[in-house]
């Protein structure tokens, strides 16, 4: 009788131990398609951090699908992480350079960087009378507005 109780206890402990170490449904990796869908939805909602995390998970499942790098480029661009954005865009183009929208994004990235550098230089100009910088800044900002209108 005692032997039976010991065996039953061991079986119960073993079963509960297996249940404790088996992954819960929420911890199981999502399918690639579900990750992509969720990443796009998060991006549309403006949750760039979540979108970035989901794209990275999708790339872990399928590292050769270059679209993920294009999307990470967009996210990095919007987060002002320009070197990272450029790296992602170039990785995206490495598989297929015939993607005019990605080349366009690289150009927009350069315009944005030039604008930010010019704004930074003006903050260090104690005279404040640099007409060339002012004119160039107007042109760069106008280019960026045009870029935004074309995207909408």
TrEMBL record:
TPR repeat ranges per the UniProt record: 66-99
Pfam families: TPR_14
Protein species of origin: Pseudidiomarina taiwanensis
Annotated protein name in UniProt: Uncharacterized protein
Key word Plastid present: no
Superkingdom as given in the UniProt entry: Bacteria
Keywords carried by this UniProt record: TPR repeat
PROSITE patterns named among the record's database cross-references: PROKAR_LIPOPROTEIN (PS51257), TPR (PS50005)
InterPro entries: TPR-like_helical_dom_sf, TPR_rpt
UniProt KW Transcription keyword: no
């Amino acid at each position: 009788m005692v032997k039976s109780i010991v065996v039953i206890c061991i079986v119960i402990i073993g079963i509960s131990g297996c249940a404790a170490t088996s992954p819960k449904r929420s911890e199981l990796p999502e399918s690639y398609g579900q990750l992509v869908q969720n990443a796009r939805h998060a991006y549309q909602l403006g949750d760039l951090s979540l979108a970035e995390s989901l794209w990275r998970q999708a790339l872990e499942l399928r590292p050769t699908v270059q679209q993920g790098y294009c999307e990470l480029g967009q996210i990095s661009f919007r987060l002002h992480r320009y070197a990272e954005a450029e790296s992602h865009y170039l990785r995206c183009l490495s598989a297929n350079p015939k993607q005019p929208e990605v080349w366009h994004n690289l150009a927009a990235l350069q315009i944005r960087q030039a604008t930010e550098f010019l704004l930074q230089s003006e903050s260090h100009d104690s005279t404040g009378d640099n007409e060339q910088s002012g004119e160039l800044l107007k042109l760069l900002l106008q280019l960026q507005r045009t870029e935004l209108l074309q995207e909408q």
